[in-house]
Design brief:
With 303 residues, the chain is mainly β. It has helices at residues 67-70, 88-91, 149-160, 278-285, and strands spanning 11-12, 17-18, 28-34, 36-37, 52-55, 58-64, 78-85, 96-100, 111-113, 116-120, 123-126, 140-144, 170-177, 202-212, 216-222. A hairpin with a 2-residue loop joins strand 5 (52-55) and strand 6 (58-64). The longest helix has 12 residues, at 149-160. The chain is flat and about 80 Å long.
């Protein structure tokens, strides 16, 4: 049977399993490990297996939504699906394309999961394995192009950003079990259909198109932290110049103590100008107070 949703102000016993009321990309559900009564509002659910969540007097432990099904003698087939999400700024639309390869359990047509239809199209996905070398995986996604459907998408997005070739588009890899697919896939319905039961969702971005032919288009994917030309953090690390706008929501100063740009006392608000220094911040918030200084004073102090 499908997982039951969490409910507020409800008594739970040890061993009860509940899902969040919204789909979790982590693919987790939660087992009651300390009996009690749930709170009046839904807790913030854990995102790692084994983590616990306090919910009024109930304690939940995060578990995989599919592990138990995979560990049986004859598990249901794993169904692998892919979603391509376009970015309006880069690609001129927010269209979403959904595909599955159709090689599992001899699925010969389109499938429906979580109310979305995934078109059957030959896809080869490689390189999603995580290794202990310290580098993030850079998978490759090969999509059949015999009907020129991928070429058509490329032409449309390149009309918005010349030479973009879908760079920056998000690719989501979703894996669930056949038994959890929507009832629309089964002639007699499916009582086990569950959009909340899946493996952790993996999200990558297209870094570049490596090849395009009449048969297939190959994309190289990268983590959001591994995209060429991207820097983290986005702000430049400056030690002694605050980057916040004075008296804004970032700065948060609304006081009536006024100082000029040189940290001298000023008489009116019109003369109040922040010097953008740490000393300017201390004058306004106190030398022992919490300072919303918009830069990185520790830069240059460590090696």
């Amino acid at each position: 049977m499908a997982y039951t949703a969490w409910a507020a102000s409800t008594a739970f016993s040890v061993g009860d399993v509940r899902r969040a009321t919204t789909v979790q990309a982590s693919g987790l559900v939660f087992k009651c490990t300390t009996a009690g009564t749930s709170g009046s509002s839904e807790p913030s659910w854990a995102t790692d297996i084994g983590n616990t969540v306090n919910d009024n007097t109930v304690v939940w432990t995060a578990i995989s939504s599919v592990y138990e099904e995979l560990s049986v003698l004859a598990p249901s087939a794993i169904i692998e699906m892919f979603e391509l999400h376009l970015d309006n700024t880069l690609h001129g639309s927010t269209d979403v394309y959904r595909w599955h390869s159709g090689v599992n359990e001899q699925v010969t047509g389109n499938i429906v999961w979580n109310g979305n239809t995934y078109s059957r199209i030959p896809i080869q996905a490689q390189g999603f394995e995580f290794r202990n070398t310290g580098t993030l995986p850079r998978p490759t996604l090969t999509v059949a192009n015999t009907d020129s459907s991928v070429t058509t998408i490329l032409i449309l997005v390149n009309a918005t950003t010349t030479g973009n070739d879908l760079a920056g588009a998000e690719v989501r890899r979703i894996r669930t079990l056949k038994k959890f697919l929507d009832a629309a896939n089964f002639s007699g319905g499916n009582s086990d259909a569950d959009p909340y039961a899946s493996m952790p969702e993996e999200r990558y971005f297209i870094d570049r198109k490596t090849s395009e032919s009449r048969e297939a288009v190959v994309f190289e994917l990268a983590s959001k932290f591994d995209l060429a030309g991207q820097k983290i953090p986005k702000r430049q690390c400056i030690a002694n110049v605050c980057q916040w706008e004075y008296r804004s929501s970032e700065c948060s100063y609304t006081g009536s103590n006024y100082f000029d740009i040189n940290d001298n006392t000023a008489a009116t608000l019109a003369d109040d100008v922040c010097g953008k220094r740490l000393s300017s911040c201390k004058l306004r918030f106190g030398s022992a107070g919490e300072l919303p200084f918009g830069s990185f004073p520790g830069v240059g102090l460590t090696q």
